[in-house]
Inverse folding.
C-alpha cells in the first residue's frame, strides 16, 4: 500500500547511476523501466531509476523538471509547514500501545550506538553526539518493536480471515506502508507503529487479503469489506497518516 507522494514519470529507457547526485536521493529499482521523480509532503525528493540508468540522464531529467519539483514542494509546504530536525526526547507509538522517554548516554570508544528499554525509558548508549547514528539506532529499535507487536496480530488476523502468508519482513520503506509479494511474504513498515490501532489492523487485513487477490479489483475490496466494513474511510485516513510520522525518522 502506497504512502503519500506526488510523482512525475518519464517514459523512456535509460541506464544506471553510479552515485546519488546532490540535492535529491536516487533509488535504483529493478522493476523500473523509466526515470521517475517523487516529491514527498515534507519536501524530500527521490529519483527512481532503472538499473541501467546513467548519472547524466538522471541529472538531465531532474534539471528538466526542476520547475515541477519546485511547484510541488511549494504546494505541499502550504499545507505542511516545514519542521526542523530534532532528536526525540519522547516517542509515542499508538500502534504498539507504548510511550517511552529517550535517554542519550555518551560512551567513549563505542563505534555503534546500542539501545535498551527499561520500562518506559529507552536508553541509547555510545557516540550519541552523532545524530544520524542515533536515528539509525532508533530505527533498529522500531524494527524490533514492530516485529514484537505486529507479528502476533498478523497471525491472529491470518487465522480470522483465512488468508495465509509465508513470511513477515519488517522494513523502513519510504514509499509504502506494507506489501504482499507473490511468494507470500508480507512486508510491513515499522513506521505504522505511529498510527492509530484501527489503522494498523486495517493495514494488516489489507495485506492479508492480497493472498487471494494480488490486485485491487472489486473482488479484492469485497473480501476486505468482510473483515473491515469501514475500509473506505480507513483507507483515506491511512493515505493521510504520513503526517503522524515524525520528521526525525526521515521517511517523508
Amino acid at each position: 500500500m502506497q504512502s503519500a507522494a506526488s510523482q512525475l514519470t518519464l517514459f523512456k529507457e535509460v541506464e544506471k547511476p553510479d552515485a546519488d547526485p546532490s540535492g535529491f536521493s536516487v533509488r535504483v529499482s529493478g522493476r523500473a523501466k523509466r526515470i521517475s521523480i517523487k516529491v514527498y509532503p515534507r519536501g524530500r525528493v527521490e529519483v527512481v531509476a532503472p538499473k541501467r540508468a546513467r548519472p547524466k540522464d538522471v541529472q538531465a531529467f531532474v534539471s528538466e523538471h526542476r520547475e515541477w519539483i519546485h511547484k510541488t514542494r511549494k504546494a505541499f509546504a502550504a499545507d505542511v509547514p516545514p519542521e526542523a530536525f530534532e532528536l526525540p526526547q519522547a516517542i509515542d507509538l499508538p500502534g504498539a500501545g507504548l510511550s517511552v522517554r529517550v535517554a542519550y548516554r555518551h560512551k567513549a570508544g563505542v563505534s555503534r550506538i546500542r539501545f535498551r528499554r527499561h520500562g518506559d525509558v529507552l536508553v541509547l548508549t555510545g557516540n550519541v553526539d552523532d545524530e544520524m547514528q542515533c536515528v539509525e539506532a532508533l530505527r533498529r529499535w522500531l524494527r524490533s518493536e514492530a516485529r514484537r507487536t505486529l507479528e502476533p496480530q498478523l497471525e491472529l488476523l491470518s487465522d480470522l480471515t483465512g488468508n495465509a502468508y509465508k513470511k513477515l519482513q519488517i522494513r523502513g520503506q519510504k514509499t509504502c506502508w506494507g506489501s504482499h509479494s507473490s511468494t507470500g511474504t508480507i512486508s510491513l513498515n515499522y513506521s505504522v507503529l505511529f498510527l492509530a490501532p484501527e489503522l494498523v489492523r486495517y493495514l494488516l487485513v489489507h495485506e492479508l487479503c492480497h493472498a487471494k487477490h494480488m490486485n485491487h479489483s472489486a473482488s479484492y475490496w469485497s473480501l476486505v469489506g468482510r473483515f473491515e466494513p469501514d475500509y473506505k474511510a480507513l483507507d483515506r485516513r491511512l493515505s493521510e497518516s504520513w503526517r503522524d510520522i515524525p520528521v526525525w525518522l526521515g521517511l517523508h
